[in-house]
Amino acid sequence: MKPTAEEIRALVGRQLGLRDVRLEDDIAADLGAVSADIINIVAALEDLYKVVIGEEELPDIHTVEQLHRLVCERVEAS
Predict the structure, then answer these.
(1) Residue 61 CB: number of other CB atoms within 10 A?
(2) What pLDDT was estimated at residue 47?
């Protein structure tokens, strides 16, 4: 099941305790996520969509939209 942008936004918001998360938000700079938050977000996405996201890919992911695209790519490849 390919995730929608709304599903990713909602998950990020839940993980960070935020209500208003936009696709263009920078996960760290705009939403205040620290590395542990990002790891928890990725773990939740991996569990939900049954994908694997390598730690080496995380430095290239800045926005919620980039995270959405990465998860979609992984879902399509599986």
Answers:
(1) 20
(2) 96
**Model-level pTM?**
0.93
Closest CA to 63 of 7, 16, 12, 4: 12
The answer to whether the beta carbons of residues 74 and 52 sit under 8 Å apart is yes
DSSP 29: T
Share of the chain above pLDDT 70, in %: 100
- What is the average per-residue pLDDT within 23-47? 96
Asked whether 38 and 45 are in contact (CB, 8 A), the reply is: no
Alpha-carbon span 72 to 78, nearest angstrom: 10
> Which residue in 59, 70, 58, 68 sits closest to 21, CA to CA?
68
